[in-house]
Write a structure and sequence with these properties.
Layout: H1 2-16, H2 19-27, H3 32-52, E1 78-83, H4 92-100, E2 103-108, H5 112-121, E3 128-129, H6 136-141, H7 161-167, E4 178-190, H8 191-198, H9 209-212, H10 214-220, E5 225-227, H11 231-241, H12 251-262, E6 270-271, H13 276-280, E7 286-290, H14 291-303, E8 310-312, E9 320-328, H15 335-345, H16 348-358, H17 373-376, H18 385-390, H19 399-414
Parallel strand pairs: 1-2, 1-3, 5-6, 5-7
Antiparallel strand pairs: 3-9, 4-7, 4-8, 4-9
Helix pairs in contact: 1-3, 3-7, 11-12, 11-19, 12-19
The protein binds pentane-1,5-diamine.
């Protein structure tokens, strides 16, 4: 939908001169936080409003210092969490268990589709789930989540107000969703291997060519191409690549995207949503993956003594922004414990740990001052203003659109 894309850019341009930006500078003139606020997060956050911006402004409390987790209730001391793999700092669950005496059962899912199937079936057994924006608006609307009790979330004010306003489009009034982290789906490469495989052929202007254009994939198949394994991860960038709305619900558009994908199908070696080790270990040299996971792979390769350069690229036509949020299921057995965990997660140090250790930007504004300079300065984690302007904002699918898209994806994957 051209209107949305235009809105994103217009809003961004507007935000560059917005008094709000200047206000932040004058409030925190000497803080390192302002560097991040002005240069990376704030422009992005304001930009994000454009997409999701048709909703009305919601009040979010001013940031407060981190508060201790509220005293638990008579609820049994158990909490069941369902989250993405490789998405939580080491030791965070243990620290929460130690402080509260609540035993956490932590399971993982690999795709939004898998989580959604569980939510649709009901009785998930999970108290907290972490859906992404491709599904969360529809899940909120379907009544899968219970409203948050803000009185139990003393650290709620640590959240970035601009991001919360943007998320308000997915979750009117911010009643159900609390941001876990955000990032973007993009092209990741092992530059060392890719340059070797391409030989004399120069790197393309648009990084998406590396994974969607036969001239490139036919060469890169020798060092391994991997795609995330999900319709809602692959079809939006494919739609965007062929010039359609990334969040189109039109089956004809899905068919066109699947036709394009069909031309490179034979060159794709791996379909996986847990590709960090494949990238770090040299099994895949060009991927459609998540920004943070590609950065984690880069760090892991280094730790393993590899000299290969692994990078998350910033395609000239933009990556696909996503927000993942915590929500408490409607039939959660441990809602008080769930609130206690969410409040623990909302502490500034928790948000900082997610960015520092998992390479995903946090929506926790109070955390920004604790983020390591090499993380805040990495433009593939905290994207800069120019990149933010190019990114494809999250969109909504209808159920019918999602189904048509899933069919197109399955046909492509089967090679039909
Ligand atoms: C998994 C990160 C999930 C990001 N490591 C996409 N929702």
């Amino acid at each position: 939908m051209p209107g949305r894309q235009l809105g994103w850019i217009d809003f961004y341009n507007f935000s560059l001169n917005a008094p709000l930006v200047l206000d932040f500078s004058s409030i925190h003139p000497f803080s390192s936080e302002i560097f991040i606020m002005n240069k990376f997060v704030l422009p992005f956050a304001l930009t994000a409003l454009a997409l999701l911006a048709c909703g009305k402004k919601e009040e979010v409390a001013a940031p407060a210092a981190s508060a201790p987790v509220a005293a638990a209730t008579s609820e049994e001391k158990v909490l069941n969490i369902y989250n993405w793999p490789d998405y939580i700092p080491e030791g965070m669950i243990a620290a929460f268990e130690k402080e509260t005496g609540i035993k956490v059962n932590y399971d993982t899912f690999e795709t939004n589709e898998a989580l959604n199937a569980k939510l649709v079936a009901g009785n998930t057994g999970y108290d907290i789930v972490v859906p992404g924006t491709a599904f969360s608006p529809a899940q909120v609307e379907a009544g899968f989540f219970q409203p948050l009790d803000r009185a139990k979330l003393k650290n709620y004010g640590n959240l970035d107000e601009a991001i919360m306003q943007a998320l308000g489009k997915a979750d009117p009034g911010n009643k159900h969703l609390v941001p876990w982290a955000w990032g973007f789906t993009t092209v990741g490469i092992n530059r060392t291997k890719v340059e070797k495989a391409l030989g004399k052929m120069p790197m393309p202007e648009n990084a998406w060519d590396l994974v969607f254009k036969p001239e490139y994939t036919s060469k890169l198949k020798s060092c391994g191409i991997a795609y995330l394994d999900s319709p809602t991860e692959i079809m939006p960038p494919a739609l965007h690549y062929i010039g359609k709305d990334a969040y189109s619900n039109d089956p004809a558009d899905h068919k066109a995207a699947a036709d394009m994908l069909g031309k490179v199908r034979k060159d794709i070696r791996i379909f996986s949503s847990t590709m960090i080790d494949d990238v770090a270990g040299g099994k895949a040299c060009a991927v459609v993956g998540w920004s943070g996971d590609i950065n984690i792979a880069a760090g892991r390769a280094k730790d393993n003594g590899s000299k290969d350069v692994i990078e998350a690229l910033l395609p000239s036509t933009g990556g696909m922004i996503f927000f993942d949020s915590m929500a408490i299921t409607k039939d959660a057995k441990h809602p008080a414990n769930a609130h206690a965990f969410i409040d623990f997660y909302l502490r500034a140090e928790s948000g900082a740990a997610v960015s520092n250790e998992m390479s995903y930007p946090t929506a926790n504004k109070a955390a920004l001052a604790q983020i390591k300079p090499e993380v805040s300065g990495n433009k593939t984690i905290f994207i800069d203003a120019a990149t933010a302007a190019k990114m494809v904002p999250p969109g909504k699918f209808t159920n019918e659109g999602r189904e048509a898209m899933a069919n197109a994806y399955t046909a492509f994957k089967k090679g039909k």
